[in-house]
Amino acid sequence: MSGSSSPPTFQPPTKEEIGRIPERCRLKIGIPSVKNIPQVALLIALFLSSCTELLPPAPKQYGANDYAVGEAKPYPQEVSLAKKRLQNFIRRADPKQRALLAQNPYVAVQANELVAGEIWPLLREVSSGRARAMQYYIQDFTNQTAYPVKFLLIFDQRAQRLVSRDGVLIIDTPPRGRVAEFAGVKAIYAETGWW
Q: Where are the domains positioned within the chain?
């Protein structure tokens, strides 16, 4: 191969070429001396660690057997509806179900139903696969915004009072009338109050 030349090598710009670069294009570093580098590094570290305060907190993690995917505060009308459903659930119980109620003081009653798309932190968990939603992952993985999310309130059925101020969000549901774990509390799942 005649006439082949060696590849061009990088040549740094000369002082004249640098002088022709407009002032606004030059990179300016705001560190006046090397002594300030530790302070600047500390400021950057503090800024980056404070960013976690600006982001929403990660959802609470629940145990492998826990149906909860989140928690939320109920509205007064949800508490009222759930109390009526609890009373209906207790009133309709047969002798076998009454024995179950005698063994388990807590009852989880559905107070509302939403879709996952209405709760964006939960939707993020569902989309990443961290939220328990097995029956819906299998059925329709592509339409996660439409997954039904049930909002449960857990009552101490003997005192007719809420166990916690927060309700529990679930996507997967146990069979109605079974004892299951909801946000760390074992309760009978009453669904909407019908046996």
A: 15-54, 68-191
Contacts of 133 (CB under 8 A, 6+ apart): 69, 116, 126, 147, 171, 172
Q: Which residue has the higher pLDDT, 165 or 21?
A: 165
- As a whole number of angstroms, the distance between CA 135 and CA 50 comes to 38
Q: Say how many C-beta atoms besides its own lie within 10 A of residue 174's C-beta.
A: 17
What are the pLDDT digits (tens) for 102-141? Answer: 999 999 999 999 887 777 666 666 665 555 555 554 455 5
The residue assigned the tokens 């047969």 is: 94
**What SS3 class is residue 187?**
strand
Of the segments 11-25, 50-64, 75-89, which one has the largest average pLDDT value?
75-89
Tokens of 105: 């003081």
The residue written with tokens 């009133």 in the block is: 91
